Structure formats: structure tokens, C-alpha cells
Amino acid sequence: MTDTTNRQKTIVQQTLVQRALSGHAAIGLLAGALIYIICLTGSMVVFHDRWQRWEEPSVAESGPRLSPAAAQRAMIAAIARDRGKAPTTHLYIRMPTQDLPRAVVTTDHGAWYVDGEGRIVGREGHSWTEFVIALHEYLTLPVTLGLILVGVIGVALAAVCVTGIIAHPRIFRDAFRLRTRHGSQLARADWHNRLGVWTLPFALALAGTGAIIGLGSVGTTMLAKAYTGGDLGKVYAPVFGAEPAADPAPAALPDIAAALTAMARRVPFARPTYVIAHDPGTRGQHVQVSAEHPRRLIYGETYAFDAAGNWHGPVGLADGAIGQQAAASTYNLHFGNYGGFFVELAYVLFGLALTGVTATGTTLWLRKRERRGLRSDRLAAGWSVVVWGTPLAIVAAFWVRMVAGPDAPLAAVFWALLAAGLLIAIASPRFVRGAALQMHLCWAVAATSLWHMAAFHDSAGEVLALDLVLLAAASVPLALRFRGTIAGWLPGRELRASPNRT
Amino acid sequence: MDLPVTGVCLGVIAAAMLLVRLGWSGTRHLASAGWALALIMLFLLVREHGAWGAAMGVTTGMIAALAIVLQAGWISPAREVRAPREVSASVSRPPVGADIMRRIAVFVVAVPIAFAAAAWLTFACQALVRGDGPVEANSVVLTWFLQPILWAAIMTWQMTRSGPAEMLWPAGVAAALGTAVWSIA
Predict the structure, then answer these.
(1) Which chain B residues are closer than 8 Å to A222 by Cβ?
(2) Is B147 in Cβ contact with A320 (below 8 Å)?
(3) C-beta separation of A170 from A233 below 8 A
(4) Is A17 exposed, middle or buried (0-12, 13-18, 19+ CB in 10 A)?
(5) Out of A170, A360, B50, B95, which residue is the most buried by the measure of CB atoms under 10 Å away?
(6) Where are the beta strands (DSSP E) in A293-400?
(7) A337 touches chain B (CB under 8 A)
(8) Contact B140 A238 (CB under 8 A)
(9) End-to-end distance of chain A based on CA atoms, in angstroms?
């Protein structure tokens, strides 16, 4: 009786496992390419401040602090620069940090770097970094549509993680087993499962927060249609604060220096990240200062001030309703900027691990099909293009940025290159070899970092450090690929090969 | 809790993962002790620093575990690679009409239908939380959080069903639950 029950139970379990595996593969096939692109670019975006500095290493920097008086001068200079254009509705001053010691002032008409005195020193032109961020956040589509699509991909990623766990009942038992030298398919499966298990909390947190951020507009629209007559602002207001009514009558520019001074006096532990002047130069203007709180998961608290810089208090992201605190925590949890450099580094590694899990997942499925006699040459070649062609196209976009300047259409270049690669894979799959594409990528990254180091050798140490990291990352696969040749150059090799050796 | 104590908690979590590894395929008590130690440190971090402490603790644990796994991969002995299994003769066949229809049906059930069911259940839950009051932070954020989480749960459940018809069940259950919650909201 027990045997029969156990056997029936096993059959049910096997069926569930098989169904889960089938579902895991189905989601992977449907969304794998987009998951891969989003994970890869997400791993890069964690260091977006460092990439921005790397892309434009010659910009005069303001240092890690900008004084209130310098911030005031920066605002006045930016507004003066916009003279003759439509009045700006929002002016932002991005305060400098240790990672990016550059203050940036942005109006509706452009963004400029400012020096430590608040003088404009150049146009902000980090279009390649912005392209990578856009690729991650909304796949360079129209923003709202792209955010929703990326949110949907987040939902799919969460589902693929859970079905993956159900589909592999032994995955926890073998959690510390990584057979890297047991043949490519077994090694690939071990990499897929081990990285998948130990980055599971990260993957679920990332997928969940990504889906929440991406699909937030859908929920907001639903609530607005139901309760506020379609006014989205009234739905956002209880969480992020309301905007006072606009009054376009002209007025003197707001006193953001007073606001920053009040901040330093009232909340000395908070570090301002953004100063926002709403409708500057009008009677309806007001000021907000967004500031980080140490050892909190929230991205910061927003402090409100009137035009004279008088304190109106915080919105409540730090200690308001639990919903406000939760909403403000999703961003840092997603982007990994809550614990300094080492947490950022951990996020980059976890992100690359998740990228690897995605890449190996589809490759495992393709190889399994091949063993069963179901060859999919076009699909396999197309997948190779996605895996190796995506980073290669990102590197190509960087070169286009360097040659053609910050206004080059980088998104168009990226998608055109990827589409061309996929067309070649479909038309002539034998011309596309993953190993060759991998080597091309390594050469491209190595050449880029070497050129960058030579061209900007007098840059800050952090910029050159990123060059060295890129060079090292590209060199490892190249060294493995050419280890026979390298060994031939080594003197020990000659000694070993010499017939006269005694 | 000052910074050095926080650092000690994080260090103990990393050490606890080492205990988990030692006990994983050996003395089970060591693994249990490792998990217990990690959970105690995580509790202390959460008590002191809230969500930030939890995030730091889990990140440290994952880094430690991955380092141990990578070390296992580094010292993994090389085995003689077996000749690849004979590949079956290629029987590549294009998907027939029924296959394509089935895939489209799975997509429709798992994406728009599951999304609609999740949205309805979410809307009902926020209405229950909000009651007769105005739009307020907690119910708004509940909407933002619950919708993707419920959708992912429904999609996961659907993907463990055997066909499009069976996949309708999870969405149907969510929609029915949404109606029930709405009726009492």
C-alpha cells in the first residue's frame, strides 16, 4: 500500500517536475533574449556614475562637494544660458559625489557640468552611458511603453526563477557542486544551476523591484481612472508629495542656497543628491532637495522649501507611511547603491551571474534538442548573436560615440547591428560561431581599454582603474584561447622540449 | 549598533556560510548551526537597521556562498571527457499549425489573461485596505507591489500546468478571489 502510494506520489512529482521544466524552457525561449539584454546592461548600469566619468574623462570636476553659494550660481548661469527659449519648468542640480565628483545642472533645454564655483564648464554629453541606461530601463523604446515591457520581462524573470527551482528537485542538494572540468554540457549545467541557486534571492529581488518600477504606471493609471478622474498626480501625491499650484507671474529666482544651508543645519546627516527648482522664475516656484540617509535602503528623503528657502519639511519617504518607505526602497534595492562600492561590486557580479544563467539556460536547451536529433541551427546561431553580439554592439556604439560625438544615434546603431547579426544567423547559420564572436568581443574590449588608456592617460585614477578591469576581463578568455601559443613563448617550454636536457 | 558591530554581524554571516558548506555533505549539524547563526545575525541587523540591514546581510551571505562555489569550481578535478553521445539523426521539423496555435494560446493565457486576473485581484485588495477613505500611500503602494507579484505567481502556477486549458485555472482562481475580496471591500 505504502509502496503504491509512494510510487503514485513519485509519478505526480515527476510530472510536476517535467511540466515545470517545460514551462521554465517556454518562458526562457519567449523572453530569454530580452532578459539577457536587460541583465547585461543592468550589470553595467550599477556603475553608471563610473561609466559616465569614463566616457567623458576630460571634464573639469567640481570635487565631491558643491557649496550652497556655488549651487545658486549654477542655477543662475543655467537660466541665463536658456534666455530666449521657453521658460524651463524644472531645473535640477545633480550634486557631486565621491563616485562622480561632477555637479550637473539640467533645464528643459540641456544639461551642463559646473565647476566647484558653480560656473558652467561644458555640456554634459555622456550619451553612451545614457544609451546603456535606456537599454536597461526601457529598451530604448518610447519611455512609458518600454518601462511596461521591461516590467513584464521582470514578471517573466520571477516566474522563470521559481519554475527553475521546481524543475530541478536536486538543485539544493548539489548546491556546492561545480564540476567545471567535466565536459562542456555538464559544466554548463552546473554553472547554470549553482549560480541560479546562490543568486536566487538577488534574482527574485531584482525581478520583483524591476517589475514594480516598470509596471508602476499601469497600477497608477488604474487607480487614477477609478478614483481621481484620470489625474495621475493625485495618485502619486500621497507617496512622493504634491506639487503646489503653478503661478506663471514672473518673480526673482528661488534661493536654493538658503534651502541647502537650512538642510545642513536641520538634517546634518543627510547628503543632498538633487536640488530641484520647480517653475523657477515664477511666483509659483518652490524648491525640493532630495538627500540620502546613511544606512537606509530608501533612495533618500525629499525636503520641501519655498522660494525664499524656508523649510517646509520632509515628504515622509524616510519615516512616513510604511508604503512610502517601501516605495522609496525599491530603487536602491534594484540598483544596489545602498552600501557603497562593495555592494555595487557585488551587484555587478550577481548581475553578470544572472546574465550567465540566462545565456547557459538557452544553450543547454539547444544542446539537449540537438542530442535528440532536433537540430536548430538558425536558433543556435541567433542565440550566439544575442549572447556575444549584444556586448559587441554596445562596444561598437561606444566607438560611434567617440568618433561621431554625443549626438550620434547610438540606439539605432545598436539595434541595426544586432538585427544584421540575427539576419546573418537566420540566412547563413554556418557563418556564425559563438567561439569566434566571443574572441571578437574580447579583442574589441581589450582594444577599447588600451586606446582609452592611451588617449586619456592623464585621467583620474578611477577612470584608469576601469580601463584595467576591462583589459583584465578581456585578457582572461584570450589567454585561455591562446594558452598554447603563450606557453610556446615561455623559456621553460624550450627547456622541456630540448632533447639535450639532462 | 555602531558600524564595527554591524561589520562583525556581516563577518559572522560570511563565516556561517562556511559552516553551512562544511555541513552540507558531511555533518548535518554544522549546516544547521550555520543557518541558525546566519539567521540570528540577520535578525540583529534587521532589528538595528531595518530593511537596509536585511539587504546587507543577504548580500554578504550570497557573496560568501558564491565564493565557496567558485572555489569548488576552481579545484574541481578534470575528468576524462566522454565522447559525446551519438547525436540522433537530424529530424528537424518545422512546427505545424497546431503547435503554433498552442504556443499562441499559452502566450494569451499567461500574459494578457493572467495580467488581467492579477490586476483585478490587486484592485480588490487595495480597495479592501483603503476602505472608504481617500487615495493614500499604503493602498497606492500596495497596488504597485501586488500587481507584478500576483502576476508572477499566477504565471508560475500556469507554467506548471500541462496545457492552455489547464492554465486558465490559476487565472480563474485569482479572478474569483478578486471578486470575493471586492464584494467585502
Answers:
(1) 119, 123, 143
(2) no
(3) no
(4) middle
(5) A360
(6) 301-305, 311-314
(7) no
(8) yes
(9) 74
ipTM for the assembly: 0.91
C-beta of residue A178 within 8 angstroms of C-beta of residue B74: no
Q: How many Å lie between the alpha carbon of B180 and the closest alpha carbon of chain A?
A: 19
User: B168 CA to chain A: closest CA distance, Å?
Assistant: 14
List chain B pLDDT tens, one digit each, 185 residues: 566 789 999 999 999 999 999 998 778 899 999 999 999 999 999 999 999 999 999 999 999 999 999 999 988 887 766 665 555 555 555 566 788 888 899 999 999 999 999 999 999 999 999 988 889 999 999 999 999 999 999 999 999 998 899 999 999 999 999 999 999 98
Residue A91 near residue A129, CB atoms below 8 Å: no
Quick one: cell of A270?
543627510
| A328 in B contact zone (CB under 8 Å) | no
Q: How far is CA A130 from CA A238, A384, A411, B94, in A?
A: 30, 26, 10, 41
* Nearest alpha-carbon partner for B50 in A468, A126, A322: A322
| Chain B residues within an 8 Å CB radius of A149 | none
User: How many helices (H) and strands (E) in chain B?
Assistant: 7, 0
**CA atoms in the 13 A half-sphere facing the CB of A126:** 24
The angle at the Cα of A381, spanning A376 to A387, to the nearest 5 degrees, equals: 125
Written as one letter, the residue type at A41 is T
